[in-house]
Amino acid sequence: MPHTPEQTSEASLGLKRGDLVLDTATGRVGEVMDNRWNRYQLRPLGGGREWHANPLNLVSPRMNGPRCPECRRIKSAYYAASHEGDREAAARWTTEMGLHQRAAHL
Fold this sequence. Notes:
Helix content is 42%, strand content 23%. By secondary structure, the protein is of the alpha+beta class. The protein has 2 domains: 5-59, SH3 type barrels, CATH 2.30.30; 69-105, no CATH class. Helix 2 packs antiparallel against helix 3 (87-105). The longest helix has 19 residues, at 87-105. It starts with a helix and ends with a helix. This is HNH endonuclease.
């Protein structure tokens, strides 16, 4: 049975919704939102305008070993805000994680 373009590229990269990738064509890190017609739709960390990326230009961001202490601190604060129902604080921590990931891990 022939594969559609979405199935072929998704299977070859193994990316799924929510994965973080670096688009080497733009130098931007994004979260995978969708995959259609041999393109991935990416959203900037912390929100913003989505863009389409060629799968040949996508690589995993550099993550060496376990999370760093700052990653753990931000993630813990995010979960605490989410558990308390503080959506604004959770959004701020999401943005903070994106900024930290870009500065420390790329």
